[in-house]
Amino acid sequence: MRDPRCILITGGSSGIGAALARLYAAPGTRLLLTGRDPARLAAVAADCAGQGAAVETTTTDVTDRDALAAWLLAQDDSGPIDLVLANAGISAGTGGGVETEAQARAVFATNLDGVMNTIHPLIPRMQARRRGQLGLMASLAGFRGLPGAPAYCASKAAVRVYGEALRADLAPHGVGVSVICPGFVRTPMTDVNRFPMPFLMDADRAARIIRRGLERDRARIAFPFGTYLVSWLLGTLPPLLIDPFLAALPRKG
Predict the structure, then answer these.
(1) What's the chain's Rg over C-alpha atoms?
(2) SMART domains, from UniProt (predicted)?
């Protein structure tokens, strides 16, 4: 979508979400930002307001379905939301061990349930207006399950496939859907990684790529190309060939 006037960004207090907020901030634009850290969220909001945007914020957790829906619908009542960027997510690794049930459920609750909690209150309204766009934050890690981050990979795979299917269902109603699949981006989430991250890029550059892809209504916004190609290949090759290679990779802590 070109020139959205009201943009919702979850996970807007840091990383890609904060970079997207600052990129979209401009006079005449209304930004709705969620984030878990009040201080960081306030700092991003101040930056965006300084660029002329009208900004509303909430620290409501995306896993709180009812509270988030109430806030979203109230904001949409104040002015139709044009673009939803369901960006909030968490990452966790096994540190070489086995992922606990509690950790796996927490990752799925934010990365998958949080996306659905964000988009579903607004889909019927966008359908009625025959206008709107959803950007769902998946990951190149969602193309193949990787040892050391099973819930993260699986949750992002679910978001990607769900978004790709939803795109076809919503297109006749005038609502666009794009799935966003970044590789390694320099954020607080990746700062804790203790292994090489090929083609690591800054969040500002990632935000520009995402915005360009959304403006072109691309079904899949996957980058950088080198990591995308490797991820795609890993997802297509038989496990017999790639399992020994993956087993030797360093684990996320």
Answers:
(1) 18
(2) PKS_KR
**What is the CB neighbour count within 10 angstroms for residue 47?**
15
Calpha distance 109→168 (Å, rounded): 25
Q: How far apart are CA 137 and CA 85, in angstroms?
A: 7
Q: Is 228 a catalytic residue?
A: no
Please report the DSSP string for 154-216 in residue order: HHHHHHHHHHHHHHHHHGGGT-EEEEEEE--EESHHHHT--S--TT-EEHHHHHHHHHHHHHT
DSSP SS3 for 101:
helix
pLDDT at 248 over 70: no
For residues 53-58, average pLDDT: 98
Structure-token pair, residue 122: 């607004």
Contact 25, 38 (CB under 8 A): no
Q: By percentage, how much of the chain surpasses pLDDT 90?
A: 77
Instruction: Name the catalytic one among 24, 152, 162, 228.
Output: 152
Structural domains of the chain, with CATH? 6-247 (3.40.50.720)
Cis peptide before 224 (omega within 30 of 0): yes
Cα four-point dihedral sign 168, 3, 10, 196: positive
Q: Are 29 and 53 in contact (CB under 8 A)?
A: yes
Number of CB atoms found within 10 A of residue 112's CB: 19
